[in-house]
Amino acid sequence: MSTAAPKASATAQKQTARIARLNDQARQAMGVACTAAATVGFRSLPDADQSTVRELIETFDAFDEDNDPHGERDFGTIYQLVCGRWTTERPQSRDDERERVFWKLDYYDRDLAGGSENAADPAITRRVLTIMLSDEY
Q1: What is the H or E stretch that residue 13 is in?
Q2: Strands (E), the chain
Q3: pLDDT of 58-109, one tens digit each?
Q4: pLDDT tens for residues 1-21?
Q5: Are 91 and 79 in contact (CB under 8 A)?
Q6: 53 burial class (0-12, 13-18, 19+ CB within 10 angstroms)?
Q7: Fewest 10 Å CB contacts: which of 23, 60, 92, 120?
Q8: Residue 107: beta bridge partners?
Q9: Taking Cα atoms as reference points, which of 106, 21, 38 lies closest to residue 78?
């Protein structure tokens, strides 16, 4: 008996790929292809840090099994090292970090009243990208 997870159907794979492309577009055009929201904690960072983090989110490509198990490219982490530099690369040790910022895409219906019935269909889905400090998650 095999313990491997069953492969997704071709239709499911196409839907996941479409969601991933729409999420990439949302990240790359925050405020245009999605609604962008930032928590109080993130907004308390210096403006230059906020700008740097937003740029790293727009160009984020550090997806792996840990942060993207479903292949939708809807979550990521940005790290600030103790030297002050921001990066998408996970530091060797938590002691090497000053701050962690999470970003997350969620899928809502067009009225933002509930979840979308089909995140692969932009005609019925609004994406909301939330940026937060990790301790606000």
Answers
A1: helix 10-28
A2: 35-38, 75-81, 86-87, 97-108, 126-133
A3: 999 999 999 999 999 999 999 999 999 999 999 999 999 999 999 999 999 9
A4: 545 556 679 999 999 999 999
A5: yes
A6: buried
A7: 92
A8: 127
A9: 38
Token pair recorded at residue 108: 């809502």
Encoding tokens for residue 17? 């790929």
2: burial class by Cβ within 10 Å (0-12, 13-18, 19+)? exposed
Q: In whole angstroms, give the CA distance from residue 97 to residue 44.
A: 18
- Is 115 in contact with 125 (CB distance < 8 Å)? no
Q: What is the pLDDT of residues 33-46, one digit of tens each?
A: 999 999 999 999 99
DSSP 113-124: SSB-S-TT-TTT
CB atoms within 10 A of CB 88: 15
∠ CA 72-77-78, nearest 5°, is: 135
Q: What is the pLDDT of residue 5?
A: 53
